[in-house]
Design goal:
about 150 residues; alpha+beta; 3 helices; about 30% helix
Length: about 150
Amino acid sequence: MRPRKLVIGGIVTVIVLGIGFIGVKATISPNSAPQPVTQAKQEIVPNHVYQSYRYPYKLTIVRPAAKLYSRPAGTRGCQYLGTVHSRHVTAQVTGQIRDDLNHNQRAGYIRFTQNHHHYWISAQETRFRDLASLKAQILKLRPPSRQD
């Protein structure tokens, strides 16, 4: 009788741990949630674009596992398209437009085109490639300083 209770107890423990692991994984990585859950989140409380502007900068994508979307993530109608690696996107891109979401400039997404496809990627997954030209553009925009 005792071994039977141990086996049943072990099975119950494994099931509880499995359910707990799935819950933790869904909490840590909400973008990997099943498609119907993601769609429900977007329909109930979608992200909204706070600010949009041209973003003609040369960028490098820092991680091959960076996620690509059809629109900024979490906005209405957004679809997950895959990763940089799975879509065979090269790391050297030129941004076209940047959208900041929900009054938060850190939650920005950048649009770029490659192989006749438009992709949106999190700005946190990119780095500037040509800082010298970026500094030159900033210097051109500054008004000349007055010398008193």
